[in-house]
Amino acid sequence: MYDFTTFSGFGRYWCDRDFVTPPTSRIMLRYINGKYRLDVDLMRKSAPTSKEIAGMIAEVQSKWQEDCSTPIPKRLWSMMLDLAYSGNVESAWQVFDRVWKPGAFGKEEALKAFRSKLEKSPYWEEIKLLNRIH
After folding, report:
1. In which domain, by residue range, is 58 found?
2. What are 40-87's pLDDT values in tens digits?
3. Cβ-contact 78, 25 below 8 angstroms
4. Largest alpha-carbon pair distance within the chain?
5. How many CB atoms lie within 10 A of CB 95?
6. Regarding predicted confidence, which is higher, 110 or 86?
7. What is the pTM of this model?
8. SS3 of 75, please?
């Protein structure tokens, strides 16, 4: 059995000119049946506390201009990836929802694009398992 840590290939599926380097997440892989798969045992983490979520929101909001006219901060996407890869996709949706300014344009489109990219991950089956997505 071989294990190693690398960064997700998520950025390969992100075709957005707003990023010089696409968002990534640190992942741990295990060699199983002739190929590397996401190691769900090593990736799973406890859900963040409400205080930790508040800290995540504050971090992203500090990087985003008041009027939300700038591109969505890459840190938000990376944070959401970290949460999804650790079995806490519900927390990712919560962070996204709370960081978006009320009435700001593009919220649904941005979330839909993120979900679409996540589903194209080579580790989608493990992400579904980690997050109990059917």
Report:
1. 3-131
2. 999 999 999 999 999 999 999 887 765 455 677 888 988 999 999 999
3. yes
4. 50
5. 23
6. 86
7. 0.82
8. helix
The two structure tokens encoding residue 130: 């980690």
Count how many domains the chain has: 1
Alpha carbons 71 and 116: distance in angstroms, whole number: 18
E strands present in the chain: 3-7, 26-32, 35-38
Does an H or E element contain 56, and which?
helix 50-63
The one-letter code for the residue type at 60 is V
In the chain, count H helices and then E strands. Answer: 6, 3
Residue 100 near residue 14 (C-beta atoms within 8 A): no
| Beta bridge partner(s), residue 31 | 36
* DSSP three-state, residue 31: strand
